[in-house]
């Protein structure tokens, strides 16, 4: 990820390595209508040289829109804050994290599970259609609006929240130009089918009007217990609904992409007899849930998939797949229905370093969405106020590979307030953590699994004004921890002489592991870190390769 924040990010931190993107007149499919982008004559356009992932790291359910000469993307943030990243690029190669849809306060009506944002430009307004869990209720589709893609965004509240849950909102205008909301009823959560619904949305984007109409539901064997994540375009005589089916997440995922079409938005809809049109390959698996876009006569889909080496530990990463239209008017992905491996990346993996020499926290830091920590950045230090519950106060960075190393410098470890520990950690969620911390006169390696803490090893805290702590991950699941009292000149492992510690339990079902710092203890305690760095090693998955062990 190319975050333009001066010295804090080492060169080579790129969200994608697509190669040079040729200059050409482009069209964009963003909130498609019957008379605009997708029906413009499709000019000849050079192909994009794609090297996936274009959004490395945990960026599920990605969405893309072109505003002027800039591509904007966003993705699921789930239970990590800040909510919904805003990424921009002029070439689909170099991406900048420009901010977040909800960088500070959460929408008043929602509390967690921030999923599937769909970015859409209509006139001079940018809309984000998103899913969140309604306080005291179930999942619902909401909407936010801004005067530019960068924000700030104003929440307009929820549009629909059915008893079983409503998710994956997508805007589409019908053949008359009338605006509709497309969404999925989350029936699979209660072992029922999953209808895809359409209903008129007023032009103020504040309320649904009229009656809802079912478009289609999961009926084909490959779709399993669900269809979801619909992205629509209108091309020639047909509306096309690209959708995901089957199991989205985790090591045993079965996700794939299908397509249906209709001459009228409200149907009848016909599913393609050759579905699924995109499924797993050796390098990438479980593709699904994304947005279709075109550059002239070339068509692409930005969607997510797991790298078969890192799977759920890195998370569902953003990839671009190209497709073409058959003589019969159906989409077929380049290389067939199995996701192909692409050439090896030509630049270094994500390397992040923060010396905390700015006045605010860098935008790539994340935290549990319901437990936002209190932080201050001043005088080259991160000051993190402790929390007593769960894993404590947590800050993390997403990883991009199965193998990585992270280090931090904890200041004045012997002077931490009573009952306070602080250090480095691999974070799954607030109840699943693996950490090396200082405090109470000792260095301690511990794990929190399903809320239950277990101590793995400890040593007496050395006499040092600063302590460097290191975490190393191999093959996603195996962790080693070391400490240094002389600024990293010499290292000692904890527990000494033993093998790696398994972190296979860490990732939740719908998101990847974060690596960062924590402070656990009374809310009156504050700890200080001098720096943090994360180095990912970029290795390609091999045929029949080394996938991590399942949980």
UniProtKB/TrEMBL annotation:
<protein>
    <submittedName>
        <fullName>Family 43 glycosylhydrolase</fullName>
    </submittedName>
</protein>
<keyword id="KW-0732">Signal</keyword>
<dbReference type="InterPro" id="IPR013320">
    <property type="entry name" value="ConA-like_dom_sf"/>
</dbReference>
<dbReference type="InterPro" id="IPR023296">
    <property type="entry name" value="Glyco_hydro_beta-prop_sf"/>
</dbReference>
<dbReference type="InterPro" id="IPR051795">
    <property type="entry name" value="Glycosyl_Hydrlase_43"/>
</dbReference>
<keyword id="KW-0378">Hydrolase</keyword>
<dbReference type="Pfam" id="PF04616">
    <property type="entry name" value="Glyco_hydro_43"/>
</dbReference>
<dbReference type="Pfam" id="PF17851">
    <property type="entry name" value="GH43_C2"/>
</dbReference>
<feature type="domain" description="Beta-xylosidase C-terminal Concanavalin A-like">
    <location>
        <begin position="353"/>
        <end position="532"/>
    </location>
</feature>
<keyword id="KW-0326">Glycosidase</keyword>
<dbReference type="InterPro" id="IPR006710">
    <property type="entry name" value="Glyco_hydro_43"/>
</dbReference>
<comment type="similarity">
    <text>Belongs to the glycosyl hydrolase 43 family.</text>
</comment>
<feature type="signal peptide">
    <location>
        <begin position="1"/>
        <end position="23"/>
    </location>
</feature>
<dbReference type="InterPro" id="IPR041542">
    <property type="entry name" value="GH43_C2"/>
</dbReference>
């Amino acid at each position: 990820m190319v975050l333009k924040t001066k010295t804090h990010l080492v060169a080579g931190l790129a969200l994608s390595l697509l190669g040079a993107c040729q200059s050409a007149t482009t069209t964009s499919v963003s909130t498609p209508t019957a008379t605009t982008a997708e029906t413009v004559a499709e000019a000849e356009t050079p192909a994009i040289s794609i090297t996936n992932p274009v959004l490395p790291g945990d960026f599920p359910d990605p969405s893309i829109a072109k505003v002027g000469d800039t591509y904007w993307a966003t993705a699921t943030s789930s239970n990590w804050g800040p909510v919904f990243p805003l990424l921009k690029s002029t070439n689909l190669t170099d991406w900048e994290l420009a901010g977040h849809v909800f960088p500070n306060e959460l929408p008043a009506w929602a509390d967690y599970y921030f999923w599937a944002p769909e970015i859409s430009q209509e006139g001079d307004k940018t809309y984000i259609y998103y899913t969140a869990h309604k306080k005291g209720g179930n999942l619902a589709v909401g909407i936010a609006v801004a005067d530019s893609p960068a924000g700030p965004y104003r929440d307009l509240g929820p549009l629909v929240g059915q008893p079983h849950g409503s998710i994956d909102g997508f805007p589409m205008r019908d053949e008359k130009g009338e605006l509709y909301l497309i969404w999925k009823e989350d029936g699979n959560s209660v072992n029922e089918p999953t209808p895809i619904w359409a209903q008129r949305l007023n032009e103020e984007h504040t309320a649904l009007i009229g009656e809802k109409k079912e478009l289609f539901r999961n009926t084909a064997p490959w779709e399993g217990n669900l269809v979801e994540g619909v992205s629509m375009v209108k091309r020639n005589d047909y509306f096309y609904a690209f959708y995901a089916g089957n199991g989205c997440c985790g090591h045993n995922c079965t996700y794939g992409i299908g397509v249906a079409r209709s001459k009228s938005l409200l149907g009848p809809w016909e599913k393609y007899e050759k579905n699924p049109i995109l499924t797993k390959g050796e390098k990438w698996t479980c593709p699904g849930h994304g947005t279709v876009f075109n550059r002239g006569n070339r068509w692409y889909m930005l969607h997510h998939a797991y790298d078969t080496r890192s799977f759920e530990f890195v998370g569902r990463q953003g990839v671009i797949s190209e497709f073409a239209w058959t003589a019969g008017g159906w989409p077929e992905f380049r290389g067939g229905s199995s996701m192909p491996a692409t050439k090896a990346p030509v630049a270094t993996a994500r390397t992040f370093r923060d010396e905390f020499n700015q006045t605010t926290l860098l935008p790539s830091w994340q935290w549990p969405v319901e437990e936002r920590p209190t932080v201050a950045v001043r005088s080259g230090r991160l000051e993190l106020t402790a929390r007593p519950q769960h894993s404590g106060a947590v800050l993390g960075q997403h990883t991009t590979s199965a193998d990585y190393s992270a280090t931090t410098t904890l200041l004045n470890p012997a002077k931490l307030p009573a009952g306070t520990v602080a250090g480095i950690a691999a974070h799954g969620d607030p109840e699943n953590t693996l950490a090396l911390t200082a405090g109470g006169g000792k260095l301690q390696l511990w794990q929190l699994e399903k809320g239950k803490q277990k101590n793995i090893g400890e040593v007496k805290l050395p006499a040092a004004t600063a302590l460097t702590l290191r975490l190393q991950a191999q093959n996603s699941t195996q962790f080693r921890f070391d400490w240094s009292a002389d600024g990293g000149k010499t290292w000692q492992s904890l527990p000494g002489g033993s093998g790696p510690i398994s972190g296979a339990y860490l990732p939740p079902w719908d998101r990847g592991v974060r690596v960062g710092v924590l402070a656990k203890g009374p809310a009156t305690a504050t700890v200080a870190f001098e720096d943090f760095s994360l180095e990912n090693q970029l290795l390609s998955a091999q045929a029949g390769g080394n996938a991590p062990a399942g949980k």
